Amino acid sequence: MAIIGNIIKGVIEARDALSKATSPVEEQKKVLIELLGQAKDTQFGKQYDFATILKSDDPQKTFAEAVPYHDYNKITDEWWNKTIEGKPDITWPGSPDFFALSSGTTGKNPKRIPVTKDMLDSITRAGRHQVFAMSNFDMPADFFEKEIMMLGSSTNLQERGGKKEGEISGISASNIPFWFKKYYKPGDEIAKIDDWDERVLSIAKNAKNWDIGALSGIPSWMELMLKKVIDYHNVDNIHEIWPNLQAYTSGGVAFDPYEKSFNALLDHPIQIIDTYLASEGFFACQNRPGTSAMKLITDNGIYFEFVPFEPEYVNQDGSLTDNAPSITLEDVEKDKDYVLIISTVSGAWRYIIGDTIAFTDVKRAEIKITGRTKFFLNTVGSQLSLNKLNDAVKHLEKELNIKVPEYTLCAKRFDDGFYHSWYLGSDKSLDEEKTATVLDNYLKEANKNYKVARSKALEGVKVNFVPQQIFTDWNGANKKKGGQVKMERVMGEDRFKEWEDFISKQS
User: Fold this and answer.
1) How do residues 185-213 score in pLDDT, each as one tens digit?
2) Which residues, at least 6 apart from 131, have a Cβ–Cβ distance to it below 8 Å?
3) Which stretches make up the GH3 middle domain (predicted)?
């Protein structure tokens, strides 16, 4: 009998039963007041007169009117560079001990995002929130005694100017509470291995020594790790190694494109739980079955605003126009795409994280990630967001009975005009012209803007099949293998030329 598991499950269920209903809207108002109060004496707080905003009859409105939007370049040039130099009290009280490195999708110089103690506490509380939500999923008691494989970046953080730097998953794992370490795999020693391939090989060698009940990590890299374990032990599926595996916590990207290829690695379905953890914070997690939507964590040091994701408000590089309006949680609408804006306990203020989201349930504050502002394909008016591209690939998988976990595309000019040029990662190569027709027909049927574009300047779709390994090798060549790395789904023409040159050298 799972005695400890029953105790843990009982505590979780008791807490859930005793918890009071809360209002996400009211929680957000309180969070903003707390943020402004804590930061009013920083250089940023004085510049934008947080003390006066706090006295306003409507702090949310006054805050939005007083403080401009910031992308990473703007807030770094004007403020965070001072924080990086070690100066205290710039955008948040004190000086952070950590910086999260985020190289985005271009492989250029990494971003350095402050991670304060308050943010680490926020991430820990969000993790507890997720654990407590497990009471809604009816997991058996013995699940709470199993180990958790957390596949993130290396925890071997680098020293720079007296501060520690690494990807957010590595920072979070290096600050795991002592009581959780007995459940955490692959453990401190393996987690510190910098080289991704060496780390995964070590996981494969030790896999049979662990009783894994849950997985956590980005889908593309999780799949590669599972395949390595399966191949190393010469078995058919991962349940032959970890028979008690019952849940997978995905995060950071939509799971839909990976669903078919991920399930092929299992003996039977497991519970998929989506989370939304970025370098800037832990924003949301799925807290009930029957939906893949995630509940915004609205009482945890992060204040959210939302800009309607309309072409007139979003520039081609993903930045916002000066006149882009923002709304609060109180005024959002269901099934409408928004650019997510955050203000946090790490001193990010009206910060454009680059993601787009949509609300699936306004009252519950439940969302889904719909894409990236930079991955919005609007050349010649086609207006395709990432979720629409993912839907098209999912349709393709079903229609042609293939698995396509990775893809990228570009609106590229050929001699006879613009085409959407797709590269599909699949180890099963099909007729490319037929595949292009299936994609084109689906997009015309599902998206009126695409259909209009096809009747004007967009000539059609071109498709190329490449092995799935090409995408992994591309990320590796850009020094971005493993951890928080996400493949860029939409590329500009210059970047796409680099991609096609890379492919030509592989053949």
Assistant:
1) 999 899 889 888 899 999 999 999 999 99
2) 12
3) 297-363
